[in-house]
Design goal:
seven-stranded mixed sheet, alpha+beta, 166 residues, 31% strand
Length: 166
């Protein structure tokens, strides 16, 4: 039986420590997809996502409903950040497996972060990305994100986005 969901409603989102084996595998798949899009080998630093845990961060895995230990179909992380113009929640490591693309899973993962951010009292989300990640950029624009001036000094980023949580 395939573990690919037939519709996006067949997916559940569960928090996981970013260092858990299945979370580390999802983050590695994210890095592999970014590498392929960039045409270079790009790797996450081993401690790159340490702040996606604890009271100021979170990480979620998406799996087929009813398949608690099955294939991870996607992931997303979030962390509180203090910016010059106020606090925000930054989205990190949004990834959807090739098998689950086109099912609306990326937007649903962003919804998970939005709910978490709102529960924390955040008024906006931010993220940075690469221009080569065209599907991600389309997703952000389609779901209400707007391009903004750089909010960080990430040398790997080419585009910065923000979304108000009104």
């Amino acid at each position: 039986m395939s573990t690919t969901p037939e519709t996006s409603t067949d997916v559940v989102f569960r928090p996981a420590p970013p260092t858990a084996p299945e979370a580390a595998a999802a983050r590695a798949s994210f890095a592999a997809d970014v590498s392929a899009a960039m045409g270079v080998t790009w790797q996450l630093a081993e401690d790159a996502d340490a702040d996606l845990a604890g009271p100021d961060g979170a990480f979620w895995l998406a799996r087929r409903a009813g398949d608690r230990d099955g294939e991870v179909l996607g992931c997303v992380g979030a962390r509180a950040v203090a910016l010059a113009d106020g606090p925000a929640v930054e989205v990190k490591r949004l990834w959807v497996s090739a098998e689950a693309r086109g099912l609306g899973l990326g937007a649903r993962l962003l919804d998970v972060v939005e709910r978490w951010a709102r529960d924390r009292g955040a008024t906006r989300l931010v993220l940075d990305t690469r221009g080569e990640l065209e599907a991600a950029t389309r997703l952000y624009r389609r779901t209400g994100w707007v391009e903004v001036a750089p909010y960080n000094d990430n040398a790997d980023a080419q585009l910065w986005f923000s979304k108000p949580l009104g």
